[in-house]
Amino acid sequence: MLTVPNRRCVPVIAAAMLVLATLACETITGPSPTDTPPEPIPSATFEPTEVPPEPATSTPLPTITPTQTIAPSPTPSGPMTITSDPGNYGGPVWSPDGTKIAFSLRVDRNSDIYIMNTDGSGVTRLTDNQGYDWDPSWSPDGKHIAFVSRREGNADIYVMNAEGGDLQRLTQHPSAETGPSWSPDGAQIAFTTYRHETDELCVSCNSEIYVMNADGSNVMRLTYNPGSDETPAWSPDGNRIAFSSREPNKSYRVFVMDPDGGNQIQLTDTFTDAGDPAWSPDGIYIAFSAREQGNTDIYRMNADGSNPTRVTFHTEYDSQPSWSPDGRFLVFRSSRLGGGIYTIDVSSIP
Fold it and tell me: Which terminus, N or C, of the chain has the lesser number of Cβ atoms within 10 Å?
């Protein structure tokens, strides 16, 4: 700190001969301008306290809660993904006891059958071979899973137990045979095939619906239509089979028929490429996929085809619906976010 100059005057008496007394003034000053000023005290600075990042934790998979209700709207918040990684998933189907979902997953040009818990946890691989396995279908008692495989070269229907063992081949035909669906009593399996065609190249082939005993015996043809008939689905009471059918140069429509192939009735008309029919457990509704307004979504209608209602609203591809045993939820595959399996609560849809 600089001091303010102060003057102190002291009288000095000279010799007697001097008549004039002078006042000598001694000036006391602070530091001269040439002195180095003191170092300024630096202003205090405060470094922000670094908060260590929280340890990374995996985001828990969403769970299905019985109290969740989803009302249909143009931007529903209901669909929840239950698969943690994007991928080429297919054919999700709920187990009869409601605890598992079977599905196929394609990895590196190969597809296998898996099961998981309904919240997406506990993924277990059931098949592991160089063939292509898809289209899983639970037996009504939940002890077996029928599926399609190309492990012997062409697509045939196989069955295994729910743990992946005791594999049996049910069909052995040069034609492709797909889409197995169990009858409610577990005695028969309906499926799609081209075995009636004589054209080996199958340039203009059409598929038809057949049925066989659960052990692969007693194969019978159910449909004789000029177009392709596919994706059979047995009603819970066993009295009807829903399926998709396409006449030449037209799009797919959903039909129902008796178990012997008779009394075929068309249920959808205005939708484009309606398919993948799935009966609700009480037999009141049929869920299906259809392309409308440029994209494919999941719909629900009454079993007689009335009151079709849109369930999913997304620009990506939603298909292959399957009901939970209590009829509250649908599980389906979707191409959204790179591909996954989703569930949605449909219990609040009027």
Answer: N
